[in-house]
């Protein structure tokens, strides 16, 4: 499921802050600093998620893979999101902007007159982060995982599994991404190579 779509469809309530997150090795409610924003400005891979609501689970199953780029703007506190999704045999591109609230550590998306929120959970040690949604609603709650590399370590997998159980869900509800099904990575690589060749041609013509 696309990151911006998740932010539109789900809204967060801070029930998790009332729990003890140490059991899942996660920290809730940390302020978002410029250092964090610099760390987030990178390429990210959607690794998996656990969502209670059926249509959200189905949306994840329809999307084979997703990677995206985050570019932060410190002047107006927004984040540009550029994503590439593999859906079937197609590579689908999309771009949008996210807001963020520094004090309570949340991302936000304003759509159709409604602003929804997701709590950012940084897993810096693992080069990853999670987003938590609707944790007070047993039928809608969800947790998603993103990492800087598509090859997930066993330790990161276990951290996410523990976090999912900690918010009252079951490991069986997790859908992990199979990056062997990615169609967008090769396309991006070809576009980058083509761009390099295009830059070389004018130089060769002047030689």
Q: What is shown here, in short?
A:
This protein is an alpha+beta fold and 207 residues long.
Walk me through the structure.
The protein has helices at residues 3-9, 34-40, 54-62, 154-166, 184-206, and strands at 43-51, 63-73, 78-87, 90-101, 106-111, 114-123, 128-133, 142-147, 174-176. It is globular, with a radius of gyration of 18 Å. The model is unreliable at 8-23 (pLDDT under 50). It has one domain: Calycin beta-barrel core domain (Lipocalin, Beta Barrel). It is α+β, with helices and mostly antiparallel strands. The protein has an eight-stranded antiparallel β-barrel with strand order 1-2-3-4-5-6-7-8, surrounded by four helices. One of its GO terms (biological process) is regulation of immune system process. This is Alpha-1-acid glycoprotein 8. Functions as a transport protein in the blood stream. Binds various ligands in the interior of its beta-barrel domain. Appears to function in modulating the activity of the immune system during the acute-phase reaction.
């Amino acid at each position: 499921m696309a990151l911006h779509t998740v932010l539109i469809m789900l809204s967060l309530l801070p029930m998790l802050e009332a729990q003890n997150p140490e059991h899942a090795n996660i920290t809730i409610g940390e302020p978002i600093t410029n250092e964090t924003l610099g760390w987030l400005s990178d390429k990210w891979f959607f690794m998996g998620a656990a969502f209670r609501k059926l249509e959200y689970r189905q949306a994840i199953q329809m999307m084979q893979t997703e990677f995206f780029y985050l570019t932060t703007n410190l002047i107006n506190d927004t984040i540009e999101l550029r994503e590439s999704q593999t859906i079937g045999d197609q590579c689908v591109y999309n771009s949008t902007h996210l807001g963020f609230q520094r004090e309570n550590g949340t991302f936000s998306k304003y759509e159709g007159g409604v602003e929804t929120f997701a709590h950012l959970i940084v897993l810096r040690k693992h080069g990853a982060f999670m987003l938590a949604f609707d944790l007070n609603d047993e039928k809608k709650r969800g947790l998603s995982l993103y990492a800087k590399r598509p090859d997930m370590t066993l330790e990161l997998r276990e951290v996410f599994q523990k976090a999912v159980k900690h918010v009252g869900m079951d490991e069986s509800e997790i859908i992990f991404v199979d990056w062997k099904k990615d169609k967008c990575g090769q396309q991006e690589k070809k576009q980058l190579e083509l761009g390099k060749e295009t830059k070389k041609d004018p130089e060769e013509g002047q030689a």
